[in-house]
Structure formats: structure tokens, C-alpha cells
Design a protein that fits this description.
The complex is a heterodimer. Chain A is mostly helical. Chain A has a domain of 209 residues. Chain A has 13 helices and two strands, in the order ααααααβααααβααα. Chain A has a two-stranded antiparallel sheet. Chain A starts with 7 loop residues before the first helix and ends in a 20-residue tail after the last helix. Chain B is of the alpha/beta class. Chain B has a single domain, classed as Rossmann fold, CATH 3.40.50.300. In chain B, the strands form two sheets. Chain B has a six-stranded mixed β-sheet, with helices on both faces. In chain B, helix 3 packs across helix 5, helix 3 packs parallel to helix 6 and helix 5 crosses helix 6. The longest helix of chain B is centred in the middle third of the chain and has 20 residues. Chain B is globular and about 65 Å long. The model of chain B has no long low-confidence stretch (mean pLDDT 90). Classes of the chains: A mainly alpha, B alpha/beta. At the A-B interface, helix 7, helix 8 and helix 9 of A face helix 2, helix 3, helix 4, helix 5 and helix 6 of B.
Chain lengths: 330, 256
């Protein structure tokens, strides 16, 4: 008889979830740290989904936050402007979930459109096109009064919490991991490795490049929606080029092509960035030196330079941890 | 007997350069065909035209009586033509096994949803894909390399891996672009045995381009010689080897 095994990843996530909940409810951990954890988990979704496009399929997208922006604005519009829900309204949670999924689907449609330049362009040239796309999205939101224009979309109900975000992050990791370990995922890897050879072993490279953009954009849209319902606002500047680069850094620091790496880097870099803010302020207070919080970006950047100098392939390279890796079929 | 592959009056220009000139070739099933000719005589271009990398300027390609001229490369592969490359095109940072598994892609019936949910039908298919892929590695004497990253394999093994990968697409016609290039004499010997074995075992028609005379004369059952895109001789190996125009193209003009 086959023994039923709970997947290791699920056990790990449940343990992680329980630990954080206990720490929080016993007030050992404050709301600020929980907020940073929530942000990290959203970055996990962004990094893992970008990894599918850049790492697995080998395309170069610089506009990932543009997809998140689409998700944030579409879901925010549905929950706030159309249904005007709040956490105490009946069916509020249901509408929230529908709004998030709608945001993801809208982003996927945009991903489908942006996938087409990838059929003709490679490397740097594709990067420029996707960068331009991200800026277009930002400018569009900046100019639609219905969603608040440059003020941003405000008053979004706070539906995202540790539970919803953890579930979303877990689903993202599992879906993308399972995808990679299937014949569809292998087709995407083949596109990255050698497009002509992929085509000549029967892979429809066009289809898989567009598919990577569609799926990557879908999850980025989900992440954007969760962000909007966590911060209770969506603002054009949240989805600009710099933010896309932050996610890009995460996948390169973690190891291009490694889901584990993207996950670890999303956590590590979100915490590092916040930790430096506190650390530098503490140093300034203790020594009286005239250094402000902006210096954290200098330290942050230096650390990244060192990671890339001494570990060019990123923390994980293309390896996966045992938690992520699936058992091989026999 | 109707031809498996039939090339009719194929001409191809690169800008003003005529790379292939009015090339016709009928390839019936089950035989090992050789295409030889000096460097730059248009051999690889012919392969590229058959597999859809280029679209011929003039002429048609029929495969199993279907016009495949100018079809997308992946469609041509799916219809039953596989090939290897003169300059290897291996998925180098993936394992040898994954290289083969990728080529099993289009035979896979699992949809995105069944794959992501890892439903039983998907799992069974994965098991079958792995089994068949390992068998192919075994056939090409590469079992010991299954888990190895392809970039760590020596040249001769990469050539065999590429043949295994082409076979994984279950072709009826196998195009080999200089399969013996860069191999040592022992490897060449082994390769010749393998190609004959593949033809017998898989009932696949082989069409190969080769410089290595030992290989061509040793295993091909019919040979066509081209120079500057034009056919200068064809026939069984023994007859072709005696053709004055062939000797001329290979060794230069006598006397003068």
C-alpha cells in the first residue's frame, strides 16, 4: 500500500505560518515585522514569476512591475470603486478573491500582448521594449482620473493579510515548480538554451515564449493586487522602472532559473533593505555622524556588487532546495 | 515505390549568391543516403531548406507526398523529419537525459492544467518519457551520462547525444549533418555501426552529409555528389568514386 506523504514544502510552509502566527499573537513580533514579512512574500510571487520569464525561458523582461500595476489597479477598481467592499461587508472576502484573480487575468492579457515583441527581439532589445511597456503602464494610470490619476487609487480595503498572502505565494511556487517539471517547462528551458535547436526538436518556440509572458504576468498581477489590498492604495510610482529592477535584482542575486533562489532573495533583500534603514539610523544616533536613511541604498548596492563579484551565478545558481525539488519519477 | 522525401527543382539564393541550383532528389524509404561535396557546395543549405530554416527561392519539398515547402521548422519535425547539426546545438546546461526528454515534447498529450496538477495521466506519461529517453541514451552508449550536464560531455558523445535527441522525435527521416566531424577513428568506427543499427532498428531512412569518405563509402547505399549547388554525380558508392568530375571536385583538375 502506498504511504501518504505530505509534501515537504507544505509541511515547511505550515510550520512557517504557525511560527509567525504564534510569534505575532504572543507579541514577541510586532506588526511592523509582520508587515515586512507580508511584503517579502509578495516579492516572492513577483520574483518567482519573473524567473519563469527571465530565468526559465531566457527572455529579458524589465517591465515586470507593469504587470503588477495592471493587477493592482484592476483589482483595486473592482473591490473599491465597483463593489465598495470593506472587511466587514458580507461576501467581502469572496469579492476580494475575485478581484485579485481578475487583476491577474487582466495582467495576463497584457502579458500576451507584450509577449509578441519577444518573438522578434532578444536580450537587450527585448529589455528596452519591456522597459518602455512598464513606463507606458505607469503613465496610463497617472492619467486616468477615475482611478485617482497622480494621487493614486486610495481607500482600498485591507483584505491582504498574512494568511491570504502566504497561500498565494505557496500556490505561485507550486504552480511554477510543477510547470517547470513538465514537458511544457522543458520546452521553455529549451527555448532558453537554444532556440533553433528547440524548434528543430518540435517545440513551438513562439507559443512557449508568449506562454511564459502570460503566466509570469498573471502571477505578477496577483502580486500587484495583494500589494494594493495590503498598502490600501495603488500609486503609479509603485510600479515604475526602479521597482521592476528591484525584482530583477532578486532573481539574479538568488540565481537565475532557481525558484529557491528567487524565494530566498526576495526575503533576504526585502529584510536587508529594511534592516539597513534601522541599522543606519542607529549608527547615526550612536555616533552623531550626519548620515541619513538614504545611505542604506549605498550599502545595499555595495552588497549586491559583492554578491555578483563573488557568486556570479547567484546564491543558488540553477539549483533547487530539497523542499522545492520534486521527487523524480521512476 | 513513392519517394519518402522528394525535392523538386530547389534553388536558393543568398542575396546574389546562388547557394543551391535546381537541386532535385527523390529519397525512397529505408535506405541510407549520402550527400557529399566540397566545402561551400551547398550541402548544409539543402538541409536547412528541407527543415524549414530557410524557405527556398524556387522549387518544392514534398514529404510523404505532402508539400512542406516553407513550413515552420517545428511543424516539419512533427511531421517526421529530424536532424542533427554540423556545429552542435545541444541544450548545454541541461542534463543529457533532459536533452532527450525535451525532444519528446510534442508527443506529450498532457495539457498545462494536468501538468501543473500532476494528475495520474501526466505522471504516467512522465514515467514513459523517462523510460524511452533512457532507452535512447542506452542505444547511443550514453547511459552513464544521463545525469551529467551536457556541457561536460566530450565532443564525440555530444554528437551521439544529438543523434539520440533527433531519434526521440520518432522521425521517419533522419538528417545527419556531418555526424563524424571531430571524431577520432575509433569513434568513427562505432558511429558507422550505430547509424546502420538505427536504420535497421527504427526503420528510419537516413540522409547524411559527410566529408569523411570512410563513413560515406562505408555505410551509404546511394550517394549524390554536388558542387556549387549543382549535382555532378550520383549512384552507388563504387560507381561514384570512379567519376572523373568527383575526383576533380575533390582533388582538383588533372594536368592543365
Amino acid at each position: 500500500m502506498k504511504k501518504f506523504n505530505l509534501p515537504k514544502l507544505l509541511i515547511f510552509v505550515i510550520a512557517f505560518y504557525a511560527a509567525i502566527q504564534i510569534l505575532y499573537s504572543t507579541e514577541i513580533m510586532n506588526g511592523y515585522i509582520l508587515h515586512i514579512i507580508n511584503q517579502s512574500l509578495i516579492y516572492v510571487i513577483l520574483a518567482v514569476s519573473l524567473n519563469l520569464i527571465n530565468g526559465i525561458t531566457g527572455q529579458f523582461s524589465l517591465g515586470h512591475m507593469g504587470f503588477a500595476g495592471v493587477g493592482a489597479y484592476v483589482s483595486g477598481t473592482i473591490s473599491t470603486l465597483v463593489f465598495k467592499i470593506n472587511p466587514s461587508s458580507p461576501n467581502g472576502m469572496l469579492i476580494f478573491i475575485l478581484a485579485i484573480v481578475a487583476g491577474g487575468l487582466a495582467a495576463a492579457v497584457v502579458g500576451f500582448l507584450i509577449g509578441f515583441p519577444s518573438l522578434r527581439l532578444k536580450g537587450d532589445y527585448l529589455a528596452i521594449v519591456t522597459l518602455g511597456f512598464g513606463e507606458i503602464i505607469r503613465t496610463v494610470f497617472n492619467n486616468i482620473d477615475y482611478v485617482g490619476g497622480p494621487r493614486g487609487l486610495l481607500g482600498i480595503p485591507k483584505f491582504s493579510n498574512f494568511t491570504t498572502i502566504t497561500i498565494a505565494a505557496l500556490i505561485t511556487i507550486v504552480v511554477i515548480r510543477n510547470l517547470v517539471e513538465s514537458s511544457h517547462g522543458r520546452a521553455m528551458l529549451a527555448v532558453r538554451e537554444n532556440e533553433l535547436a528547440a524548434e528543430l526538436v518540435g517545440v513551438n518556440t513562439t507559443r512557449y515564449k508568449v506562454l511564459a509572458f502570460v503566466i509570469g504576468a498573471f502571477f505578477a498581477g496577483i502580486a500587484g493586487g495583494l500589494f494594493a489590498h495590503l498598502l490600501q492604495m495603488a500609486h503609479p510610482t509603485q510600479f515604475g522602472f526602479i521597482k521592476s529592477v528591484e525584482v530583477l535584482i532578486m532573481i539574479y542575486a538568488g540565481g537565475v532559473g532557481s525558484i529557491t533562489g528567487s524565494t530566498i532573495a526576495a526575503f533576504a533583500l526585502t529584510f536587508l533593505s529594511e534592516g539597513l534603514r534601522i541599522g543606519i539610523r542607529a549608527i547615526a544616533d550612536a555616533t552623531g555622524l550626519p548620515i541619513g536613511g538614504e545611505w542604506r541604498m549605498v550599502v545595499y548596492s555595495l552588497l549586491l556588487i559583492f554578491i555578483m563579484l563573488f557568486k556570479t551565478e547567484g546564491l543558488m545558481g540553477t539549483k533547487e532546495s530539497k523542499l522545492i525539488r520534486l521527487k523524480e519519477v521512476e | 515505390m513513392p519517394a519518402l522525401l522528394s525535392i523538386k527543382g530547389m534553388t536558393h539564393f543568398f542575396g546574389g549568391l546562388k547557394a543551391v541550383s535546381n537541386f532535385s532528389y527523390d529519397i525512397p524509404e529505408g535506405i541510407i543516403y549520402g550527400l557529399i561535396g566540397p566545402n561551400g557546395s551547398g550541402k548544409t543549405t539543402i538541409f536547412n531548406l528541407i527543415t524549414g530554416i530557410y524557405s527556398p527561392t524556387e522549387g518544392k519539398v514534398f514529404f510523404k507526398d505532402k508539400d512542406i515547402t516553407g513550413a515552420k521548422p517545428y511543424k516539419i519535425v512533427q511531421s517526421g523529419i529530424a536532424r542533427t547539426f554540423q556545429n552542435l546545438r545541444i541544450f548545454s546546461s541541461l542534463t543529457a537525459l533532459d536533452n532527450i526528454k525535451i525532444a519528446k515534447h510534442f508527443g506529450s498529450k498532457s495539457s498545462l492544467a494536468t501538468s501543473v496538477l500532476r494528475l495520474p495521466s501526466f505522471m504516467n506519461e512522465e514515467i514513459a518519457i523517462k523510460k524511452e529517453s533512457l532507452e535512447l541514451l542506452d542505444l547511443m552508449h550514453l547511459s552513464h551520462r544521463a545525469k551529467e550536464n551536457a556541457k561536460n560531455l566530450p565532443y564525440g558523445e555530444l554528437r551521439r547525444l544529438e543523434i539520440a535527441r533527433a531519434l526521440a522525435t520518432k522521425p521517419q527521416l533522419l538528417l545527419l549533418d556531418e555526424p563524424a566531424a571531430g571524431m577520432n577513428p575509433k569513434e568513427v568506427e562505432e558511429l558507422m555501426g550505430l547509424i546502420t543499427h538505427i536504420r535497421n532498428e527504427f526503420k528510419v531512412t537516413v540522409f547524411l552529409i559527410e566529408h569523411h569518405m570512410q563513413v560515406v563509402m562505408g555505410i551509404c547505399e546511394y550517394i549524390k555528389v554536388i558542387d556549387f549547388g549543382e549535382t555532378i554525380a550520383e549512384g552507388i558508392p563504387e560507381a561514384v568514386a570512379k567519376e572523373p568530375r568527383v575526383l576533380e571536385a575533390y582533388l582538383g583538375k588533372r594536368g592543365a
